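Supplementary notes for students who missed Thursday's class. We covered one full example, reproduced here. Read the sequence, then the structure, then the short commentary at the end.
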Amino acid sequence: MAITDYDAPRTPAIEEDSLEELRARRNTPDSAKVDVDETELAETYDLPGADQLDEELSVPVVAQQADEFRCTSCFLVRHRNQRAYPDRDVCRECA
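Structure (token representation):
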């Protein structure tokens, strides 16, 4: 384990670059180039299921019936005989 002497005098801080030096570095041709057009990069990604976004709903939606309940745990609509407790809307699978 290295021993550090915290009472030793500190070395002088490194002086920062002057404004002129920073401007000269920015204008050099070797400076790093940033890809500013992020839309081109985003267009190359293929998201899973993206080709299905234009499809219409092909299943008829039926409202909840009087003998059904919605489970408060899994949020599925179940028949009333699948209720685990008579006073709570929780199905047997979630109980």
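Commentary. The chain has a mean pLDDT of 79. The two ends are 56 Å apart (CA to CA). If anything here is unclear, bring it to office hours.
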